[in-house]
Amino acid sequence: MTVSLQSPLDSEQNEADTSPSQRFQFRKHQRLLNQALFAAVFADAPIRASHPNFLILARPNDLGYARIGLVIPKKHVRKANHRNNIKRVARETFRKEQHKLPAIDAIVLARRGAEIVPRQQLTSIFTGLWKRITKRANAPAP
To answer: Are 47 and 137 in contact (CB under 8 A)?
Structure first.
C-alpha cells in the first residue's frame, strides 16, 4: 500500500493548473450583494424562466461570468430551514450549471408554495430553469 504525501501547497498548485472552466466553485464575486445590483435586474430583466413555485429573472452583464442573487421571502416560505434549503439547492444547481450559463446577472425568486416542494424535485426544477435561462439568453434577439 503506497501513501501519497502531498502538501497543501501542491494541491493549491494543481488547482492553479486547472482551467477556470473545469472548477465548480461558487465564489463571492459570483453573488449579487447589494441593492443596486438587484434593482438593475428587477428594472430590466429581458430573460425569464418560470415555474409555479419559482421565477428566475436575468439580464446580460459585461463581466464574462454569471452571478446569482436569491430572494426567498418569509412571506412565501415561513420556516427558516425551508428557506435555507431552497437557497442551498439554488446555489448548488447554479454552481454546477455556471459554466454553461452566459454572462448574466440572475435573481431566483420563490413564490407561494415553494416550501412544500421536496428537495429532490427542487434540484430538477432549478436545473431545468437554468437550462431554459441559458437557451433564452443565447437565442437571437427579435
So the answer is: yes
- pLDDT for 50 beyond 90: yes
CA distance 24 to 18: 11
- Helices assigned H by DSSP within the chain: 8-17, 35-43, 80-97, 119-138
Domain total of the chain = 1
Is the CB of residue 115 less than 8 Å from the CB of residue 82?
yes
Structural domain contains residue 97: yes
Instruction: Match 421536496 to its residue by C-alpha cell.
Output: 118
Is 3 within the bounds of a domain? Answer: no
* CATH label of the domain that carries residue 79: 3.30.230.10
Query: What residues contact 110, with CB distance under 8 A and at least 6 apart?
Result: 53, 54, 71, 72, 73, 76, 77, 83, 86
Strand partners, 71: 109
Per-residue pLDDT tens digits for 69-120: 999 999 999 999 999 999 999 999 999 998 899 999 999 999 998 999 998 8
C-alpha cell at 3: 501513501
* pLDDT over 70 percentage in the chain: 82
